[in-house]
């Protein structure tokens, strides 16, 4: 029997978008991202996903983003002896199931409402722990640092920060950078074309959730927080360009500055600043 869940937060409900897109992609003959766990989860929930079926850009973007961050996590795990992977604002992400690397410890963190749903649908594993809290709080960060004093941390914040105001984003970045030098921080952003002009991703056009912050230039974060050093800023449309259609995949991708005004993928190393 399918489970129906009434979300208290309109932002929390957006977790169903990447879940559905990953499940849909996973059923393709040659998927960008193979995610059998997402297929099972999407099928287990009583929800009308048809509202997302015509969101072509989000459909590709969600799975490209997942693939990109999975690749960053795998590289990190290979590089360090005691890796800890923290999914901030995890929703119903299944990165632990996709990567399945026994060397690493995974944490999935989100609001209590979301973690309660995760616990029903995806039971915790010995190497996959859940944290019910807000990314705006710091207690969970201190707990992680104390629990793993010799570990190297990578934080993935996927499909989350655009729902927060810029001052909140800056505060979160500062709090991570202050505590986890030697680690990495990866996240996606919407550009200022969306945040300033009310342009929404195609999957959100009929949804109440709003884009509250935008960022075009990844170097700006280095000025906000000197201990964050840009590893790369990636243009979605240069990745798997045959899936974006002719205009986006062959023409627009050649103008990265314009693409960044809509969205991009960012990775930073966290260094100690005297």
TrEMBL record:
> Does the keyword Transferase feature in the UniProt annotation?
yes
The record's listing under Pfam families reads: LCM (PF04072)
- A GO molecular function held by the record: methyltransferase activity
DNA-binding keyword on record: no
Q: Which UniProt keywords apply?
A: Methyltransferase, Transferase
Q: Which GO terms describe its biological process?
A: methylation
Which PANTHER family is this protein grouped with?
S-ADENOSYL-L-METHIONINE-DEPENDENT METHYLTRANSFERASE YKTD-RELATED, S-ADENOSYL-L-METHIONINE-DEPENDENT METHYLTRANSFERASES SUPERFAMILY PROTEIN
Q: Under what name is this protein listed?
A: Class I SAM-dependent methyltransferase
Q: Which organism is it from?
A: Candidatus Aphodosoma intestinipullorum
Organism phylogeny: Bacteria, Pseudomonadati, Bacteroidota, Bacteroidia, Bacteroidales
């Amino acid at each position: 029997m399918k489970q129906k869940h009434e979300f208290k937060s309109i932002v929390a409900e957006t977790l169903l978008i990447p879940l559905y897109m990953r499940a849909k992609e996973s059923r393709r003959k040659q998927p960008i991202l193979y995610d059998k766990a997402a297929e099972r989860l999407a099928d287990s929930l009583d929800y009308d996903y048809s509202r997302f079926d015509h969101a072509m850009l989000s459909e590709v973007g969600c799975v490209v983003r997942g693939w990109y961050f999975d690749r960053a996590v795998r590289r990190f795990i290979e590089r360090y002896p005691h890796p800890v992977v923290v999914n901030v604002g995890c929703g119903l992400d299944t990165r632990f199931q996709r990567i399945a690397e026994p060397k690493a410890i995974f944490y999935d963190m989100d609001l209590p409402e979301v973690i309660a749903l995760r616990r029903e649908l995806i039971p915790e594993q010995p190497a996959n722990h859940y944290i019910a809290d807000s990314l705006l709080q710091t207690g969970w960060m201190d707990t992680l640092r104390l629990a793993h004093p010799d570990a190297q941390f990578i934080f993935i914040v996927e499909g989350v920060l655009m729902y927060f105001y810029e001052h909140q984003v800056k505060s979160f970045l500062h709090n991570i950078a202050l505590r986890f030098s030697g680690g990495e921080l990866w996240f996606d952003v919407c550009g200022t074309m969306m945040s300033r002009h009310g342009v929404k991703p195609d999957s959100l056009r009929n949804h109440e959730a709003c884009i509250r912050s935008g960022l075009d230039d990844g170097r700006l974060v280095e000025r906000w927080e000197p201990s964050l050093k840009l590893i790369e800023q990636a243009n979605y449309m240069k990745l798997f360009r045959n899936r974006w259609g002719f205009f986006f995949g062959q023409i627009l991708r050649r103008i990265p500055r314009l693409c960044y005004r809509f969205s991009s993928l960012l990775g930073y190393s966290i260094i100690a600043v005297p």
